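Translate sequence into structure tokens.
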Amino acid sequence: MASGAGNLLVINSGSSSLKFSLFTGGDQNTLQEHCRGQLSGIGQAGSFRVSENGQTHETAITVKNHEQALSTLMTWLSGYPGDTALTAVGHRIVHGGTRFNTPVMVTDDVLHYLNTLTPLAPNHLPANLSGITALQALQPELAQVACFDTAFHTTRAEVEQHFALPHHEMLDDVRRYGFHGLSYEYIASVLPDHLGETAYGKIIVAHLGHGASLCAMHQRHSVATTMTFTPLDGVPMGTRCGSIDPAVVLYLQEQGMTPQAISDLLYFESGLLGVSGISDDVRTLLDSERPEARFAIDLFVHHTVRAIGSLAAALGGIDALVFTGGIGEHSMQIRSAIATGCRWLGLELDETANRQDASCISTPASQVETRVIPTNEELMIARHTLAALSR
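Result follows.
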């Protein structure tokens, strides 16, 4: 490995897991990922998985909390070949509120503000911040950088960022933030490599995974996106319901459900899992012959196609469609079904290229160039961390 002067650790801290990547490089052009991994099952019997040089190693492990998980990770890093002294750590933070539209060095003031945003992302932000606070306790002098999933969408027009609600102090933070911004920002950064001049045209990116959203881009900037106030909105997801009439929540309250029970229903018991009653994994549903599984897939595809139509309207047309995320990158069946629903846009799918997971999966005659581009949020965070250090 390179000298410790260029070692960056990227952390994505979830409620019961801690994902990480280790990078080296003194500038944006020389960044290199050496390994990535995940400590899962925090608070119970879990595992420690590391992937490097095309090989994956996994061991059983039990850690009580994020501080123990990070302590385990730092101990492991100390035994990694070469000099692993860290210059900084970059964190994926789901929400930057109205204050942050660019990555920032973590200070007490920054951390205080982010904690005030917890009600806006109660199922994501506390876990994100736990990674920061745990590392502060372990290595208080280590520089930490917060990188926000909402930041990429701050370029949208004001009419895209507001709900039709009255002006009221209580509603100041209620707006259409948008999420998956680090993924979209990475895709935007590499679009010219795949699309040439078309990259600066009207592009729709479908980040389809366990969490799913879509983003309309023009000049490689966000114009519109499907997630709004929280990562719950938009298309149906693995366990999240997607867009829903807010009166449903009022109705469930009137029926006696508690706010926590409603939150659990909408975030963890709905989506593909809730509709199918089988699984939140697209692969499992595609392999199943049960009609509930087929219906869950059909519903996911239907609402994704609807979202593409809505975003094409926001753009005033569409030049290219990009699939990314776990489902978008790996499920040829889902891509094919979505492409079929988008024929009215002039999209013609090359089924052979699609089956081969090729980069370009549209025919030469297609009016909508269709691409599969793997995302890399970790590299985006590493780039941001370097930039924040230079500032």
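Note: The chain has 14 helices and 13 strands.
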